[in-house]
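Z., the sequence and structure:
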Amino acid sequence: MIETLKLFTRRILTAGVIAFLAVYADPAMGRDCSECHKLHLTGSDFSQWRSDTGDWQNAGDAQLNPENEKLLMTRSGSGAILNGPTGRTVNLFSKQEFGDLRAHIEFVVSKDSNSGVYFMGRYEVQVYDSWQKPSEYPGIECGGIYQRWDGKRKPQGFEGHSPRVNTSKPPGKWQTFDVVFRAPRFDQAGRKIANARFEKIVHNGVLVHSDIELTGPTRASAWDDEKPVGPLMIQGDHGPVGYCNIWVAPAGPNPLFAFDNAAQDTNHTTVEEQVKMLKDLGYAGVSPHYAGPGPMAQMLQELDENGLQMYAAYTGINIDPGGPAYDPSLKEGMKVLAGRNAILWVFAQSKEHKPSAQAGDAHAVEILRELADVAAEHQVRIALYPHYAFWLETVEDAVRLAEKVDRPNVGVTFNLCHWLKVSESRDAKAVLEKAMPPLFVVSINGADNDGKDWKTLIQTLDRGTFDMKGFLETLRDTGYTGPIGFQGYGIGGDAYDNLKRTMAAWEKHSQVLRGDVTPFGVPKKTP
């Protein structure tokens, strides 16, 4: 006899999903408060959905019809919802509208069936029977980010994103999505200043997408425009599908990762030791120096096993003619990063040209286009990395070069310590606005406003006189929703203690990045 839905859904919460929830627990409420603002959209009725529910029905469970595997059959009860006997009914829209959110979704499809979950009614994560099936095109797969559509283009479908791996279960088996979504950002005049972004999509406990931007609504969205908020939409007209245990919660602040230099000391000399420490302290991942395909593959394996991410790998180019322009193994290294949407942090040096000298632009653009085109084949991005006293020294240099390179996978980095070193201003508003929208990643650390050397310009986040809260407010107001890294170069001392104090400071400072929690209801509990 089939168990009740409550027991059923409890059983299928895998270790990977539980780990996901732990990462996105609300530090403001304490690490055990991932339940605080959770809003359940499925239950005993359709009270959380707009009134036109068509043939959607409540049930206690769903499974394949033994007489026709292209249909689902139900068991009496409540908690699950199904789109009628034939799977051809209206789309469901949540009553509440959301911007940024974290969502958990459980679903089951019949053989060859199709549905989708549209965030803000516009951006689809595909629900599809992909069990042991080859991909027809990017984004069609279960867990794919569905393609956009333009009838005047060739091909008409574009910007679909396949999941990194196919983790689909057979039809008739319940599956899970866990998603962190960031809404597009708009200025006071209503002009879009940042694209919508899927920060993370986890399918059946496996990370399949990371930091994917969407330039507009995907195909078959409810609306073609973009807004700051919108409802969750469940597609109901593409075949039999069941959903249960759908809930949403605040997305929380941007993910915080650590540079590898912040995780290294005499007690943490191996990749295994460093990754374990970062996981224990609540960091989302790490950014290592690029040391070749082998070490990077080892790092990725360790990160994957611990549910963390590699956000960026640090490498460089030499724009002077006559020598190697970059590490000869770099193109092979990109293959190791394939499908992860990871970033190569690229600094640029020259003995021939002084810092910021535009005479070096032409050769730099040639090198960067070559790298960018190879990177694009493997879904790798390049973020230009300004570095004090290097030829590529300022954020303005990076923006200028990115515009000249003119590749969609080439953007810029804002690294606080190098900006403080070269800038007389301590107001980052103008430079951040100039860096948007191709600002791929930001790094921060504690610092002194009047600091001159690296000891005063790179400190743990709990130290220094620089107004970190004000900086993060400025970053928020420019529309940046991407990852933020902690720079730990030269701090010294105990890495665990440094990272622990930095995380505590981050939990305090990042309150300004948490956004509006009112759409999710009154907190269910307090610490």
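Residues 5-249 form a domain with the Jelly Rolls fold (CATH 2.60.120.560). The mean pLDDT is 92.

Let me know what you think.
H.
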